[in-house]
Amino acid sequence: MREEVLTDELWARLEPLIPVCPRRFRYPGRRRADDRAALEGILYAMRTGWNRLPTALFGASGSTCWRRLTEWHEAGVWQQLHERLLAELRVAGLLDLSAALVDSTHLRALKRGAHTGPSPVDRRKLGSKHHLITDAGGVPLAVTLTGGHRNDVTQLIPLIDAIPPIRGVVGKPRRRPRRIYADRGYDHDKYRRLVRARGITPVIARRGVGHGSGLGTVRWPVERTFAWLKGFRRLRIRTERRADVHQAMLSLACSIICLRKLILN
């Protein structure tokens, strides 16, 4: 997909969500950088880095784009954008909530900060985890950030609760899939009971059972979605000390994945 087409489609959905920032009449100061230029700079920086962003190309510096990313995150813009795109996918019949897929992935954290910890898979080096829940086809419904030492099963319920109300059709917004598929890392009877209490059927592989459960034929879309997320260079290794900045980029990346599916289908 051509990048300018994606940016145009993304901007058409993002612009109505951006809060208006009125300019002061007295002592207005320097004129605020254009929001569209800031969006293009943010998308570029997610693939390269803030320091490599060519200001002359976009009309907004790396620091301006960084501030705009955090401002919009604090205003809830990225979450609203994600929810809007999920609603569009539901209207188009491209969202399959008959099942949800859950998984996590480690990434190294080069700087200390919130939601970091000793990673058990990287010689206890400082790391973080992405916890992801998708629909049956791999559309990201919610993604969270924790320290690298957090057990996957402890994030199962927070992930389910993080699924936003998905509108788009007549009736009550949808928030719960019918089934949850997960690997052995989520094997715990306590959490199975908690999942069932929410009206969801857990389908979780058990420890001590030989491979060949068949869940891999169902769970592979969530692995593909992680690969799509890692397509953004800034999400492969955590270089941001602030957790909210990294979470903002995660939310934006999920929206881009949803938009690509909407455009290509």
UniProtKB/TrEMBL annotation:
Domain Transposase IS4-like: residue ranges: 98-256
Residue span(s) of domain Insertion element IS402-like: 6-82
Taxonomic superkingdom: Bacteria
Family annotation (InterPro entries): IS402-like_dom (IPR025161), Transposase_11 (IPR002559)
NCBIfam families: transpos_IS5_3 (NF033580)
Protein name: IS5 family transposase
